Amino acid sequence: MRKQTARVRGDGEKTREALIEAAGTLAAERGWSNVAAKDVCDMAGVNCASVNYWFGGRDELYQAVLSRIPDTIFSQELEIEMVQYENVEEALRYFFTHHLRSVTDKRSWPIRVWAREVTGTPSENILAFAKKVGVVRIQALQQFFADYLGLDDPQDPRVGAAFMTAMSAALIHLLVAPELRKIVIPGFLNEPEKMNELIVHQIMLGLAARRAEIEKEKAQGK
Q1: For the segment 113-152, what is each residue's pLDDT rounded down to a tens digit?
Q2: Which is more confidently placed, 5 or 13?
Q3: Sign of torsion, CA 199 166 112 74?
Q4: Distance CA 95, CA 140 (A)
Q5: Per residue, what are the HEC states of the chain?
Q6: Cα(183)–Cα(195) distance, rounded to whole angstroms?
Q7: Cross-referenced InterPro entries, in alphabetical order (predicted)?
């Protein structure tokens, strides 16, 4: 009996994971409002009642999808990689390069779901998730921006402005449909690494300009 129970639990975890992966992939492609529970079950290859059985409903399933976002954007593993660099500029370059390289990786659906939520009208799900879970990982990432800008307080409005500006450049590329990207920005298809390098360079130029402005403000006693 114990062996059978263990097998059932194992199968259950596989089913839950398959549903989360399917829901996340579809939400990244279409937006969650355009995804039905049946669509998720069909992609996951499970019974249509599985969403209610394993999660209690469609909204609860999406909460499980959203829970993957913080670690995808800035996991502890990624933070550890970044602190290995000699300076903050190199760490930030690595961060943006890491995410731009994942644009075509279907497993990176959590950050594309996040991109959809923050660039459009946020769903009640993401608002509830933000209130419940908070933005601990995002705050840890913003500390790198504060350090680069030479500001002590990561909650300084200037840090937030620089963070939003820099992240928006990456979000655009995450949201562009692959088919359209090949037509409008063929560099992604022909020379993806060079394209990523140029995008990161542009992002860092913007951050460097803001840092220079802040240094000038400090010198003038503002």
Answers
A1: 988 888 778 888 888 888 777 678 888 999 999 999 999 9
A2: 13
A3: positive
A4: 13
A5: CHHHHHHHHHHHHHHHHHHHHHHHHHHHHHCHHHCCHHHHHHHHCCCCCHHHHHHCCHHHHHHHHHCCHHHHHHCHHHHHHHHCCCCHHHHHHHHHHHHHHCCCCHHHHHHHHHHHHHHCCCCHHHHHHHHHHCCHHHHHHHHHHHHHHCCCCCCCHHHHHHHHHHHHHHHHHHHCCHHHHHHHCCHHHHCHHHHHHHHHHHHHHHHHHHHHHHHHHHHCCC
A6: 14
A7: Homeodomain-like_sf (IPR009057), HTH-type_TetR-like_transc_reg (IPR050109), HTH_TetR (IPR001647)
Q: Which two tokens stand for residue 110?
A: 């959590």
Count of residues in the chain: 222
Q: Hey, what amino acid is at 107? A: R
Taking the CA atoms of residue 57, residue 58, residue 61 and residue 63 in that order, the dihedral angle to the nearest 10 degrees is -110
Instruction: Report the alpha-carbon distance of residue 71 to residue 109 in Å, rounded.
Output: 12
Residue position matching structure tokens 């307080």? 153
